[in-house]
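Dig into this one:

. . .
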Amino acid sequence: MPYLFLSYWTVLAAELIGDKSIYTVTSLAVRFRPQWVFCGICAAFLGKMSIAVLFGEGFSRLPASWLSGISAVTFLLSAAWIWLKKEKPAPGAPDDDGFSWTSAVSVSFFSIFFSEWADLGQISAAALVVKSQAPVSVWLGGSLALCTKGALALVLGLSLRERIPRHLVRALSASTCLVLAFVALFD
């Protein structure tokens, strides 16, 4: 149990300090329904933490250029999908964003899962597993920390959603992903 709390605070601190996925989640929350974004990002975070716990040490030895390239391509594809995917007219409730839940969950999952590998949060989790020999506790604590970070980013995105005119949302979301792609390339 102590490793669960230790991994939660360690990963949360590492992720909040220098992680770019918080901007991705905020951008997604501006564009899509928050419940579907949250489902997609939580699934991605659970998967990323699983890989960090299972393969952390070897994963951290991959060339930085590969990791940056994968992140950049993911952000570019996300920007293209957000920009090119036309909204359907909202048939139902006024807050209906015109996207199917599978589209919102998919783009949220892929935007998070395939970007920013071997970041400080994952390396911290891998180091905690090596030290503690408690992979389940570290995975659970790290996963909860990532989902907490995602929830905080969603709240920020929802507050922006209320303040940004609807016609600017697509441009803002796609632009954010483009900027993150260039940051990943030159990071």
Residues 2-86+98-186 form one domain. Helices lie at 2-18, 21-31, 34-59, 64-84, 101-113, 120-132, 135-163, 166-186.
